[in-house]
Design goal:
Radius of gyration: 17 Å
CATH class: Alpha Beta
Strand content: 25-35%
Mean pLDDT: 83
Number of domains: 1
Oligomer: single chain
Number of strands: 7
Distance between the termini: 52 Å
Number of helices: 4
Largest sheet: 7 strands, antiparallel
Structural class: alpha+beta
Helix content: 40-55%
Strand order of the largest sheet: 1-2-7-6-5-4-3
CATH architecture: 2-Layer Sandwich
Amino acid sequence: MFTRQTIRPLGFFLLAATANFLALFPVAKYAGIEAVDLPAGSLVSQAFEQADYSDAYRMKLPPRAPQDIESLTRAYLPALIPCWSRESRRAETEAAIQELTLEPGSRAFGTVYAKTPDEILMGENEYHLNFRLSVRVSEEGGARWLTVSTVVHFNNWLGVAYFIPVRAGHQIIVPHTVRTAVHNLE
């Protein structure tokens, strides 16, 4: 049964989620970020036999952005650090990201599963779901693009239940992190 102690945190969560949505949705929608299909032939498109959820967002890279995928991935990963992290902890994490090896088998944002000259695939296998995150660079129309893709496979009903609230936030936060990473390269 619901009590005051269980309803109050739920109400706070819903209020915070609504505030995040209202603050970040316009930023993501109008900041040069495109929602695209998973890149054909990419590592992320082949990560699971069956993906229960997938998305991909891309943004044009500035002309002086790094050329190699490791540098671009190191530029993207700090955008995943929550903005409410303590400044000292944030600085430590950003420094640690610059030291990552980003080779298959190493740990970054989860385990690095595969790497090509234009893509790094990382993620985790959990009890309730498995996910993969891809950071990819490509050229199209004379421009270079940074594409961040996610695929999720549910292992059981807990994964489905867990992902219901995560999905709404994910579709706002990931475009925001792509925008943050690209703007940090300018």
